[in-house]
UniProtKB/TrEMBL annotation:
<dbReference type="InterPro" id="IPR004379">
    <property type="entry name" value="UDP-GALP_mutase"/>
</dbReference>
<keyword id="KW-0285">Flavoprotein</keyword>
<comment type="similarity">
    <text>Belongs to the UDP-galactopyranose/dTDP-fucopyranose mutase family.</text>
</comment>
<dbReference type="GO" id="GO:0008767">
    <property type="term" value="F:UDP-galactopyranose mutase activity"/>
</dbReference>
<protein>
    <submittedName>
        <fullName>UDP-galactopyranose mutase</fullName>
        <ecNumber>5.4.99.9</ecNumber>
    </submittedName>
</protein>
<keyword id="KW-0413">Isomerase</keyword>
<dbReference type="InterPro" id="IPR015899">
    <property type="entry name" value="UDP-GalPyranose_mutase_C"/>
</dbReference>
<dbReference type="Pfam" id="PF13450">
    <property type="entry name" value="NAD_binding_8"/>
</dbReference>
<keyword id="KW-0274">FAD</keyword>
<feature type="domain" description="UDP-galactopyranose mutase C-terminal">
    <location>
        <begin position="146"/>
        <end position="342"/>
    </location>
</feature>
<dbReference type="Pfam" id="PF03275">
    <property type="entry name" value="GLF"/>
</dbReference>
Amino acid sequence: MYDFLIVGCGFAGAVLAERLADAGKRVLLVDKRDHIAGNAYDYYNKDGILIHKYGPHIFHTNSEEVFKYLSLFTEWRPYEHRVLGSVDGQLVPIPINLTTINKLYGRSLTSDEVKDFLASKAEERRPVLTSEDVVLNAVGKELYEKFFRGYTRKQWDLDPSELDASVTARVPTRTNSDDRYFTDTYQAMPTNGYTEMFKKMLTHKSIHVMLNTDYRDITEIIPHKKLIYTGPVDAFFDYRFGKLPYRSINFRFETLDRENYQPTGTVNYPTSNLYTRITEFKHLTGQTHHKTAIVYEYPTAEGDPYYPIPRKENQEVYNQYRKLAEEEKDVYFTGRLGTYKYYNMDQVVAQSLALFRKIIKEDLDGLQQ
Ligand code: FAD
Ligand code: UDP
């Protein structure tokens, strides 16, 4: 008899498996894929280059708790991600910053001057409700068209005006020349990769891992007291309220017979091409190799559910599922798919650590009754 059957071996499931095993629970962790680490899975391709199977994963967090926790299972390689955008025939920093403006407009403005420049371009939108509002408010129509509109339409097949503000708000606007993609306190990559980190998380003798297994095929057969589900919440309830929309991506990998391909980890293509961005893995991993590997991302509606789509009508459907989820006895939902939230890895870890604390508290309360 297992104490917990955990569905999904990504960050959400693996963190809970590790914590619960450490707290003395017996855990069965299943994934329908043939590997651990969920969407963070990385592996060496046939040329021996470390690549991310589900697209570039860059770790960053402001949470000391999350960073300390993951540090139990990995060493880190400091890495600050940088992104350039291919715009008007030039490569310019994204997020838009002082250098971006000066390069695009052939100016040599100072920080203060660029503030005024952007203020003169900005179109005030109040209240800020959509992803279009966010950008127009900050930089106005011209830069919105150059950097956001086309990219967003490719990525989501929606106009920014049809998406929650939270989506483009992920990318700030800067008036200094900080060209880092993230400004979090902790920015680093697991030295030996994500999969190795997951392997260490799952070494406890009370964790059994079953791959190539859909939990539906075993849930009736293998006795367990409680279930933790990190797959798509709508699938759990047989799409009772209809399918929740997710965005997927087709990844096209290439290994090139040259040492380097592009100047930064990622180059975005906001207005050209069918792909949104190209990432060169060696920037992220720090690997030295005489060849290099890149990935193109082509967004699509079909395929694995990667991105919940943040907009009101989807949130309303999700709220119906969430209600059902809350009524389930001895079943917990967590993770990007389990709670239909556009979460980064660190947010998923934080969410699962919080769920762990809740479960343990319930356990103690149960014992005291
Ligand atoms: P997942 O990793 O998706 O794990 C869920 C697991 O459940 C899957 O392995 C799936 O096979 C399994 N499962 C589903 N249904 C079943 C079933 N019926 N039976 C058994 N198993 C099942 N975050 C960052 O912080 N930085 C980044 O740079 C970053 N880049 C990203 C790039 C892309 C292209 C994508 C798609 C995401 C990116 N993320 C990034 C987000 C990151 O991938 C997620 O936050 C994180 O992986 C979510 O972990 P999870 O455990 O919730 O879900
Ligand atoms: N975005 C954009 N242009 C860019 C970069 C981002 O329009 O050059 C918008 C787009 O809608 C994207 C969102 O901002 O989906 C969030 O970008 P982020 O890089 O955080 O996306 P992720 O890495 O999660 O795919």
